[in-house]
Each structure stands twice: as C-alpha cells, then as structure tokens.
Amino acid sequence: MAIKARHKRFVLIGIGLALVGLAAMLILNAFQSNMVFFYTPTQVDKGEVPKNTGFRIGGLVVPGSLKRGGDGLSVSFVITDTAKTVPVIYKGVLPDLFKEGKGVVAQGKVGADGIFMASEVLAKHDENYMPPEAAEALKRAKEQGKTLVMPAK
Amino acid sequence: MKINWFKYSSPQTFYPLAGKMIPWFAWLATILAIAGLYISFVIAPTDFQQGEAYRIIFVHVPAAWMSMVIYIVMAAWAGLGLALNARLSAMMAQALAPTGAIFTLLALVTGSLWGKPMWGAWWVWDARLTSELILLFLYLGFIALQSSIDDPRRADRAGALLALVGVVNVPIIYFSVKWWNTLHQGSSINMGAAPKMAATMLLGMLLMALAFWMYTVAVGLMRVRCIMLERERSADWVKALSLGAK
C-alpha cells in the first residue's frame, strides 16, 4: 500500500502544479495590458495609451531625425515602429547606446500638439553581438544588396 | 549489469560518494572557468555597439541561466522529497537554494551595473527584471521558511510546497522578453535558430556557463554533506565517522 500512497502524492503534486500554472496564466492574461513596459507609436495613434498620465513609448529612432537644441541639452527626434511615428522632445543626457536607427524607450506625456515630452530616455539594446569588422561587412553587404528604405511618415 | 540507484538514496552511502565526486567537479569548474575567462576577456572581440562593456554577458548570462536551472532542479528535488518522503531529496533541495540565490543576485547586480551606462538606468520595472527579482525572493523565502521550522521533516514539506508553487515563475522569466514589450533585449541564443552573436563570444559564454554548472554541483555536494552530518548527527554512521576521523 505504500507504493499506492506514493503514486497518489505524485498525482496530487502534478495536479497542484497544473492548477497553479493555470491560475498564473489567467492572471497574466488579465494583466496583459499592464505587463507591457512601453507602448508603440501605432498604439499611441490608435489612442490605446493611458490618458492624462505618463507612459512609456518605444520604437526605433528614425535616421536623420535627431536634432540638438542650442543649449546643448535639449534634443528632438522621431520614434517609429515602421508603421506610425511620434515626435519626441527631451532635455537631458542621452545614454551611450542611443543612436539613430536603434531602439529607444522614452518616458513622458503626449502634449496637446501631439509631441511626446520625454522626462527620461532609455536605450533599448538588441540581442546582436558581433565584432566591429563583422558589423562593417554586414553593412556593406546590405548597401550593395538594397538601399535602406526610410519608414513612411 | 544493473546499478542499484536506490542504494545511494540513503545519506549513509551517499556521503562518501559525494566526497569522492567533489574534487572532480571542483577541478572541472576551475579549468572551465580559466578557459572561459581567458576567451571572454582576452580573445573575444570587442562588440560593434557596446564596446568593452558587453563583456558583462560572460558572467551575467550564465548566472541568469543558472538561477533558473538551479530553481527547477531544486524544486524537482523538493517535489521528489515530498512525494517519496525521501530525506536525501529534501536535503539536496536545501543544499542548492543558497547557490541559486547567489547566482540570481549576481545576475541582478551585473545587469544593473551594465544597465546604467547602456540603457541609462540602474533598474527598470520591466517584466524580465521584475520576474528575476521575484526569483530572488522565492529563493530567500525558501531558505527562510526552511530555517524557521525546527522539525526538519515539517520544514522540508513546507519548503517543498513553496518551491513547487514558485516554479511557475521560471517560464515567466524565460519568455518575458517574448510575451511582452520589455526594455531587456530578447535572447541571443534560441532553439532552432542561429545564435545572434559571434562564435568566440558564444564559446566564452558557454564555457562560463559550464564552469558555473560544475561549480554548482561541487558546492551543492559540499553543502549537502554538511546538511547530512547535521541532520543525522545521532545516527550510528555519523558517530562511527567522527570516531574514525579522530
């Protein structure tokens, strides 16, 4: 009978784990909208962002859009998810990895004029790691193959 | 030939076996760590975006991997102990918890040190970072719960329940970068896809991961030996051992 009790405990543990997993899945599903770290420009365009409070917006910095203000601190750039774009104004120090064409996450509010006033700008790094020579070779291959298409405004 | 595995499920027979295995794993860990560190910091090329700062991945990524792997192994031992009422299984779970907690802390601290210059923030509450922090609390909670109950059998059962419930968090950590928008980047190494990093970098990272793995086994065995002696101090085999040592 000892073996039977042992099997029963295995089954009970299995059922318990499955129930906990199911509960976690349902909870995470219910909180889906709260689990995102940032919203995309498309979501901003559709109005799927929190009203009247700050939120984060993420995407790529449109190449050529970065402009520095006369005071040397304020910058403006455009964030895109390749479908929609949002102009951003920020006053402060940009992180090392901030670059045109690279990922960025900005915290702030959308003003009445549709410009996103950022209070904090973070660089979102991608998962690619390679030596500079390899990156250079990749870039050259890409340029020969096809020119980069600027995302439509 | 059939090996009787159950022979080693009793502390009395496992104690000398563990003692014999420790030097092997310790040496493997040392050799792998030396090779891994050499490749990581001398041979591996500079990254095209991050410069030298990317070298944190040689510690950060293996530590984060180990924090998740150790938790699953720990919970499996705890669950086995709960189901079979086996003393040694529960002791294994108890022995792994501190190492898991250390690796979790290491992943969090190295990530934070890298995050400040690269992202521009020490800490953000995104899904990956938050779930890894919860993992640290799970480890600490497991350790605290076990040590707060005097009766070891009851402590094992309570700890096992906590460990098993916490398993839910591990897939959340792993898939968080896929399921939600996070500031943390996606994984560079995926099943069924070419790794998104240069080969030498990958080699360095894998060697470090193996070194951490061997270290975990060696330290886990050392700790489980201590736990065995402590818990079975009134057993005949421990008494015989302490007499023999004199």
Descriptive labels:
A: 153 residues, alpha+beta, OB fold (Dihydrolipoamide Acetyltransferase, E2P), 2 domains, 6 strands, disordered C terminus, B: 8 helices
Polypeptide structure, described:
The complex is a heterodimer of chains A (153) and B (246). The radius of gyration of chain A is 23 Å and the shape is extended. Chain A has two domains: 2-34; 37-128, OB fold (Dihydrolipoamide Acetyltransferase, E2P), CATH 2.40.50.140. Chain A has a five-stranded mixed β-barrel. With 153 residues, chain A is of the alpha+beta class. Helix content of chain A is 35%, strand content 26%. Chain B is mostly helical and 246 residues long. In chain B, 75% of the residues lie in helices and 0% in strands. Chain B has helices at 11-43, 57-84, 87-118, 127-148, 152-166, 169-179, 199-231, 236-245. In chain B, helix 2 (57-84) packs parallel to helix 7 and helix 3 packs across helix 5 (152-166). The longest helix of chain B is centred in the first third of the chain and has 33 residues, at 11-43. The chains are: A alpha+beta (153), B mainly alpha (246). Chain A binds chain B through residues 6, 9-10, 13, 16-17, 20-21, 24, 28, 35-40, 58, 93-99, 102, 105, 120-136, and chain B through 45-50, 53-54, 57, 79, 82-85, 117-121, 124-127, 164-165, 167-168, 172, 179-183, 185-188, 196-198, 201.
Concise summary:
The complex is a heterodimer of chains A (153) and B (246). By secondary structure, chain A is an alpha+beta fold. Helices cover 35% and strands 26% of the residues of chain A.
